[in-house]
Amino acid sequence: MGDEIELSTAPATQEPLLLLLHPRRETFEHGLLLPLSNLVFSGGTQNLAPLKAKLLCAASSPPRIDALAVSKTLEIALDHALLILETLAAVLPSDSDQPAAANRNDEISADVDDLILFFYLQSYRRLLPRPQSHKDSASVADVMPMPSTSAFDECLSLLSSTQLVHSNGRRVAPSEAEEEAYQLSYLKKHLANIIALLAEPAGGEDEQSLVLTSEKFERLGFLIQFCENGSEVVPLSQAATFFANSDPVMPPVPFPAAQVLYWLLQNIGTSLVHIAKKVSTKESAPSRAFDLDVATDDANTSHLEGQNSSPPSRTPSNSNAAYSRSQTFVEGFSKACIVKQACDCDIKGCSVKILNCHDSMIYILAPLRYATVYGCSDATIVLGAIGKSVRVDHCERVQLIAAAKRISISNCRECVFFLGVNQRPVLLGDNHMLQVAPHNTFYSQLTEHVNQVGIDCTVNRWDEPLAMGMVDPHGSLSCFARASDVEAPSATCLDPSRFTNFLIPNWLGGESTQSEKHNPFPLPEIYKSAQMKNNLVSKEIKQALRDAPLDENQKREIVSALHVHFKDWLYASGNIRQLYCLRRD
After folding, report:
1. Exposed / middle / buried, residue 212 (Cβ in 10 Å: 0-12, 13-18, 19+)
2. Distances (CA, A) of 157 to 146, 394, 479, 494
3. Using CA atoms in the order 113, 114, 118, 121, what is the torsion angle rounded to 10 degrees?
4. Mean pLDDT in residue range 145-174
5. For 62-81, what is the mean pLDDT?
6. Are 383 and 365 in contact (CB under 8 A)?
């Protein structure tokens, strides 16, 4: 049980491969919900162990349980039970274990062990956002939001001075190394309880008699994973040799849970030491150090970038996306246009993070599994096809266009979301003045991409937002509120008269196989009629101007007036950002 595991198959001339334990990013980033009634379980195994027994009794096909049984057991609304199972499905590590949607939503099911781990995870509290440093403030001063009041302002008196520092000014996402160390510390503290929930008695009544089967051990893949040299994911059964059996025909023999716990805690300790060494090395480097397991790639940032952009996006080393921790970063841009496509070598892994970007145009035209948008303002962001989950957090005046299986939005203000989503948009935390609208764009590979990640374009629930609570307990301002304590504001539907198609230039060159107007998501009739009416009015105005008996001076005056009003509209609407894409370095 050494801290470092050397793979015997590695050639003698190569450096030994380091096998390290990591928290599973997708679970911690996309698997948290605002506490629902009867969903916050304090006391660990004391409350969850009896609940597990109740769920197994209520399950019609143990060990799987459907939404209706979850609803009755937890005494929550069916919509909330469906949300729980849908969220769990979005973060399970294996597609084969995902709840399968039948003809009716209430027939979605999940394994009880996975569900118990999901409930335990809700005790995790995300790391507080870092305050923006003084040197970063000047670069985005022209897009800083004006201070405003909200429903949780009266809670400020309850906060410590440290919390107040985090609550003021722009929020900056913690670094990858900070988050990973924080998540590992959480696992180190709670792993004994988690294993106890999965373990089975071996005949005795004390803790030493508990054993863990190989199947239950694999369930821990919901929370942890092992990686070779920080990139390639290794199956848990391969990383742990204690379930190896000399007879391949026989099933693996259960292993004492206490020894499994000891081995995992050893590996967590090794990973924490590894992170500390990495951070220490990078802090001593003369140049700016990026986060753990992330390498810079200056040559392949995007096709186009604005002249006033911040440092280029960062991307990890290349690897197989399906079995890799690699992810694509777009971070710290201001007044820039960033374009990333499926054919680009700078799309890494199966997830993307867009962090702290302001007054910019960002195009991610690729099929991915996960996307996170954090701390952005006054930006237009286009996400091609996201097959698992999109998370949008602490954004202001952002216009986001996305085709995705699901989306969760928390602590956002004055944002507009043009969505093609198969599940109800989930609103968490303190949101203000949000609008939703149907998906409104197209590019030549969009249909191929949505099919590739499994999005059903015949189902679009963009207009059914589910508001869960005013205050996000995973954020820096929990204010001790529960979802049932206050009525959460929902998003409103965009006025059909303001709905327009968003045109994405054909960056790939070549002709599209379909019309640029072919949106794979059917447009609601009211929006389609409003669009046709706007197009008709536009044609009539153009024709009237052509037919007007004007002399040359009058024509010049009209053209000049149109230019002035058009320029004012560009700035007022934020569409001036689209001109960044026309500027070359």
Report:
1. buried
2. 21, 21, 10, 36
3. 70
4. 41
5. 91
6. no
